[in-house]
Amino acid sequence: MSHVKVREGRGSFPPSLLALVIIPALLAFLPAAYVVMRGAEAGWAGTVAELLRPETGRLLWNTTVLAVSVTLVAAALALAAAWCTERLAVPGRDVLRVVASLPLAMPAFVSSYAWASLGETFQGMAGAVVILAFATMPLIYLPVVAALRGVDLGFEEVSRSLGRGRWRTFYEVILPQIAPALGGGALLVSSHMLAEFGALSFLQVETFTTAIFTQYDVQFDNAAAAQLSAVLMVLCVPLAFGEMSLRHGKRFSRVGRGNARALPPLDIGRWQYAVHAGFGLFALLSVGVPFATLAYWLGRGTSLGLGMEHVLPALVGSLSYALPGGLVTTLLALPLVLASIRLRGPLVTFAERMPFIIHGLPGLVIALTLVFFAIRYTPWLYQSPVLVIVAYAMLFLPLAQSSIRASAELAPPEIEDVARTLGRKPLAAFIAVTLPSLMPGIGAGLALTVLELMRELTATLLLAPSGVTTLATEFWSYTNDRSYAAAAPFALLLVLVSGVPVYIFTLRSIGPARPPLAAVPRAQDHLIAGEV
Amino acid sequence: MSYLQVSGLDKSFGTTKVLRGIDLDVPESRIVALLGSSGSGKTTLLRLVAGFSYPDAGRILIGGRLVAGEGAKVPPEARRIGYVPQEGALFPHLSVAENICFGLTRAERQGGRLDELLQITGLAGLEGRYPHQLSGGQQQRTALARALAPQPAIVLLDEPFNALDLDLRRAVCSEVIAALRATRTTAILVTHDPAEAFASADLVAVMRQGRIAQCAAPIVLYHTPIDAEAARLTGPSILLEATISDGMATTVLGEIALREEAALESGFAIAMLRPEQLAITRGGLGGNEGGDGGVLARVVGSTFYGDHHLVTVETGGKRLPARIAAGPAPAPGATVRVSVLGSCMAFSR
After folding, report:
1. Which domains does chain B have, with CATH numbers?
2. Of A2, A18, A271, B46, most Cβ neighbours within 10 A?
């Protein structure tokens, strides 16, 4: 007798919208097509020779050292911080949680700008590792905190009752349970390091990404840029796949519904002062010094007479790209999410996950890809805003997907069935009952994407029509010219733009014993952003 | 006249046949329960009746109107169906009153329909609440009121009480059934709980492997299931090897009268009893088999369930469960006399 549940996918999905679901997945193949086609144009012998140059080896070494070091330092910091804020009886843990998440509000390229402006001591590989590890630490800290809270007290009690000590319990029982969160965060940090451009160019560290930009800058539609992109993609894609499978796997497994029983925090006596000192030092280095420096340069800039008149066009430029970009991205994400919930099957799963892979590719590679295809096949698109919007959608689709998904999973497809039996036609049923329950997710996704796009640098830099400036591009070009004072107002605005989503999505959801906001995406879901 | 007529219904998902030749008639103003384990196809049948998907073969008539099969493809919104899914699926952004009025036209909302439904379902005073402010039972009653509002031809309930605790489940079930009876509504209730099916329905259809194995009134189904599997699906049962002759079954419990529904010729068969048909009396020494209408057996275990004991006795190498309604239960190891109350059902082997 068969107990296998055989069921069709729940809820209806109009077949006419399937094209919309497939397009983003097909776009995912463009970067691969670009490096292959450009390589063929340049000739395979030349390509191989280029890749075997000692220069490529140096870039590989730099990139690897940076990615591995930053990831290890950030993971160690995050694990320690999460342990302190979740398991130790330290006064003011709520404040400490905020401190540990603060770097999210300080984009890596702004803190790099601040440190770089203090002098060459802080530039170079060593400085970059410390600065970037501090900046990316919350990407690991927040998922680990969520995982630690999900570990049921029962596991620890059972382990202790079976004779394991506190440390063995941690290694054998707790760590395996938070490992997916830790691993997912670490992969995210690594892939951000491969894609990082702005911060590294300020800190004078050469990786594949900065080298690709240099090549592009030297010679437009450069073959070497495509060849280096190929190597970078080989590094990025496995990371993106790993991150994606952890995200879709059992990363946030929690036993049973509702909250796990709260663990009694561990009393550490006077050591609590050491914990406070550690968090204080972290706040000082990750946010304090950059803010102070920023304030200093702002003062200098005002005294130099640099005013809002050169900031306003950039702000308008940012908004005029980020708003339509966010709208298009959100509208593309909606059918993708609905299809993945309502239709099952390998094709839809593939289409839904592919954007996460593209998101793992550097914005620079996406931009080069679009330049390549535009100038060859659609010259009328080149230097048009459309191309910028396409790049934005490719890069940030997962952001909108995660937000909408959080709402869509709460709205059972049965409510549309019920609306049908009560006399509504399919579209009317969707509008009357499903759309209202999706609105929080759509709104959050839109807001998040717009704010994220306002700080996007590399794709904008390569694709925006000449003469168009945004906050990020102006900030980058002033800093690159060592005009630190002129860059300051842009840096301040970028910090503000970053701070809003951090406040809305992160700090509110890591508060003490408060039920997670149902309609708002989990903090970890929006952390896939943050690459500039 | 049957109000819902389903005949020859087939449905496959991919290569898996989920429904095979389903025939089902639901008389007007009656409640029919579809009873089956998960994967038996009962929810699929319900969804075909609702119009959420269409059959591969066969036809469905509601109130004499062809809605599926023979070229007809009436969509759910045109079938006059009331649907109460698992967990209610209330529209989360609408209040109780707005949920209930969802299927009513503007003109219909003006009349006293809402108040009437709130009365029938016992929701008066809650009309301004939102779904998340309701208890599980209130949510289910709201879902029913919403389904009843447009005066549907038939109401379909898909395991509507699954999400509720056992206590609440019985209470909400009887309230919902009472509301359906009060409005003389024709309904199909999908469930895997035999007690729920028996307590609610006029007719119970046992489904398995995409077929309706038996469709009968609850008492008939309970005492005369058509085979051993139907017996197990409809409650605890005792199955004994038996030899049939002259309307009697000879088993380890002695000779048991055969129900006339068990139309069996003489020969080997399986006899079926329900646990409450075994009576246990203290067995005296020197009791002889067959005397006093029973056999001697040894008690091997006893479990106390509050309102009854379940005593396991062993006789002739066979272990049998017996329900003892009240009083002290015999201790394990004791010898008792087991006799059979009433007659048994039997199936050919």
Report:
1. 2-226 (3.40.50.300), 236-348 (2.40.50.140)
2. B46
**Bridge partner residues of A370 (DSSP):** none
Residues 433-472 of A with CB under 8 A from B: 433, 436-437
Q: Choose among A4, A6, A414: nearest Cβ to B85.
A: A414
Domain that holds residue A330: 24-254+270-526
Least Cα distance to A482 among A242, A101, A204 occurs for: A204
Domain count along chain A: 1
The residues pairing with B346 across neighbouring beta strands, listed in sequence order, are: B271
Distance from CA of A291 to the nearest CA of B (A): 43
Q: How far is CA A194 from CA A184, A240, A361, in A?
A: 16, 11, 8
Q: What is the CATH number of the domain that holds A370?
A: 1.10.3720.10
**pLDDT of B216-271, one tens digit each?**
999 999 999 999 999 999 998 999 999 988 888 999 888 898 888 887 778 899 99
Could you tell me the pTM of the whole model?
0.75
The answer to whether A4 contacts chain B (CB < 8 Å) is yes
Is some CB atom of chain B closer than 8 A to the CB atom of A270?
A: no
Closest chain A residue to the Cα of B37, Cα to Cα: A3
ipTM over 0.90 threshold: no
Q: pLDDT (tens digit, 9 = 90+) per residue, A12-45?
A: 677 777 888 888 888 878 898 998 888 888 888 8
* Residue B307 CB partners (closer than 8 Å, separation 6+): B325
Which of B17, B81, B211 is the best residue to mutate to test the A interface, defined by the most A CB atoms within 10 Å of its own CB? Answer: B81
Would residue A127 count as lying in a domain? yes
The residues, any chain, with a CB within 8 Å of residue A162's CB and separated by 6 or more, are none
Rounded CA separation B59/A154 (Å): 54
Which of A184, A222, A239 lies closest to A63, judged by CA?
A: A239
Q: Do A5 and B39 touch (CB under 8 A)?
A: yes
